[in-house]
Amino acid sequence: MPDSPNAGARARNASRGRYRFREYHVTTVPDPLALPTFEAVCVTGEERNCGATSGTLHTSDELTRWIAGHCAQSGHELYEQTVRALVRAEPGAWQ
């Protein structure tokens, strides 16, 4: 296997590299074509969380109905809610 043409060159010190980043502002805009998703996990419990999960739902009303049903069956009152939505990054002008 032939040697690299730079085999005799000194190794560059990677910590000496110099990089410059110009600042710019990025805004995020909800994607109008993507629907948000909602999910809840029951975190009621003293020694450990219940852990019951709603699964992925597509409206906050569906999520509220699931929480109401789980609360009615179990008496649990504490839930962690997650809302996911796609957003589009729109970079502004370079500063």
Automatic annotation (TrEMBL):
<protein>
    <recommendedName>
        <fullName>DUF7848 domain-containing protein</fullName>
    </recommendedName>
</protein>
<dbReference type="InterPro" id="IPR057170">
    <property type="entry name" value="DUF7848"/>
</dbReference>
<feature type="domain" description="DUF7848">
    <location>
        <begin position="15"/>
        <end position="94"/>
    </location>
</feature>
<dbReference type="Pfam" id="PF25232">
    <property type="entry name" value="DUF7848"/>
</dbReference>
